[in-house]
DNA sequence: TATTAAAATGATTCTTACTATCAATTGACA
DNA sequence: TGTCAATTGATAGTAAGAATCATTTTAATA
């Protein structure tokens, strides 16, 4: 399944149109896999290829891409939304580790939530379709700095 | 372990003072267990008992209580922070179910994250001290409305 | 290809959750 | 009770993001 081939179809299905601005924003996200970009950061990158684009359009496009489940919205409690390319069709989400000391963000490749979701669905009769999971703690580097000899 | 008895001690340990405003804000949170109050909502409630309090003080107090791990900060992506009384000492967190259709929030009493955290700690050498977990999906009521006969 | 209606854009203003500032007040300790 | 640092309330300021609207562009049709 390729995002680029179906992007126009996904838009058409909802009555939306494919514009150069929308392509340019999606391109930025595709060229920054592993990053967690703010809307302002996306705006700065997209202006390099599409200098006439307005910030409002980036805000609108990023909301559209989230609605289409092409990208995921994240928040690391710094007051602004961040975005990353979603897994697009796979029911596999990755999680984030947030170091309380250095603020670095690490990716957890594994999902590992299936068993929990089954328990939740059974007990609470709630059909889970998505989840957002953040782990807070101490990263390897920071732990080494605090305990140099261990 | 009682919050009220140790609140003053927890403050003193960090050089903070116990004020009537701080007590009043904590009282509001204690009297609204199960709710997820915004700072503005806390302000409205606390004014009933403490009419002279300023909004800025509520913002400051709520940050202080979070720093002391007495309350937890939540966000349901509506643009403002929400707070609830923490479990205070117990290593037991509850999660939240968010219905995509009616917007209702449900509480998951069980933590269920221990096994996952052990896997994460082992593979990523990241010492997990906290987590925030949200499940999105369809609640029981909304599912019944969409499938009346099943 | 030209026509056309609806959707999208960019510039701008507006909203609002939250922060910073500061003079006045209060709490903890001696 | 007196001292002084911490705290408060009023107010102004900040910034992410939403709303507005005249102009432009897209995609379907002829
Ligand atoms: Mn990520
Ligand atoms: Mn809760
Ligand atoms: Zn670290
Ligand atoms: Zn519902």
What would your notes on this structure say?
The structure is a homodimer. The first copy, chain A, is α+β, with helices and mostly antiparallel strands. Chain A folds into two domains: about 1-90, Arc Repressor Mutant, subunit A (Orthogonal Bundle), CATH 1.10.10; about 90-150, Dna Ligase, domain 1, CATH 3.30.1490. Chain A has six helices and six strands; from the N terminus they run H-H-E-H-H-E-E-E-E-H-E-H. Chain A has helices at about 5-15, 20-30, 40-50, 55-65, 115-125, 140-145, and strands at about 35-40, 70-75, 80-85, 95-100, 105-110, 125-140. In chain A, the strands form two sheets. Chain A has a three-stranded antiparallel beta sheet with strand order 1-3-2. The longest helix of chain A has 13 residues, at about 55-65. Chain A is flat, with a radius of gyration of 18 Å. The model of chain A has no long low-confidence stretch (mean pLDDT about 95). At the A-B interface, strand 4, helix 5 and strand 6 of A face strand 4, helix 5 and strand 6 of B. Strand 6 (about 125-140) of chain A pairs antiparallel with strand 6 (about 125-140) of chain B. The complex binds manganese (II) ion (2 copies) and zinc ion (2 copies). Chain A binds a DNA duplex (30 and 30 nucleotides) through helix 2 and helix 4.
